[in-house]
Design brief:
The chain is an alpha/beta fold. About 30% of the residues lie in helices and about 25% in strands. It has a six-stranded mixed β-sheet, with helices on one face. It has a five-stranded mixed β-sheet with strand order 9-8-7-10-11.
Length: about 230
Amino acid sequence: MVAPVGWAKEKYVTGFIQVFPDGVCVLNQKAIQCDRVPQRLRAMRLSPGFSVLVAVDDAPYETVVTLLDSLRQNGVRDVFVMPPFQGTNPSKSIKHWIKFAVDGEINHPFQTAMISTERFKTWREKFILLPPSEFAIVDDLAKARIGKGDCVKSAADLPLDLAQKEHRLLLFKHSGDRTQSCLLPRAATSCEFLSEVRSLRDVRWGNEDLEAVRSVAGEIGCNLQQ
């Protein structure tokens, strides 16, 4: 059973695993192939009842699930997964996807939305499936937004008061084997972009699709029209 991280308050965590976007794991600050983690834990001769903390932000969903299954099958029961605030990503077999995540002071797990032409499993992200012709329209808008040049690499590049005061959109666009990203600098510019997404006339958004976009916008403080 995978328990939420809050359950670990009374337990001593003896293993910290990070799963990175390229599918590589780091166990207690040492790189290791994810499928070797259970064997490495056994070799560490840890005390009975030890617990493990796992960070999975931006990690491939299938890698995360495989790792958690492997830990369980090898008798590691106390596994605490840190909430992935920016969500997980699909496997490399999915060649086209867009992700809307939220950056800013973390006070709860933010809503995240993913758009693709292919179905795939997600951690907790709201999923939007579009036909290729309509996905291309959203993709072109995302490409144009990333190319505007006002994107920043991280909140560390923003003035401190702005970084702490506002939430912003973190936009990911994946095509082929390349992922581009843009951290929009302000809440206002984030809301403007999400409003453009929602207003694309040649995209037949379903009600659940629009709700997925609105849920991300709501985290930033946008008031998109119903």
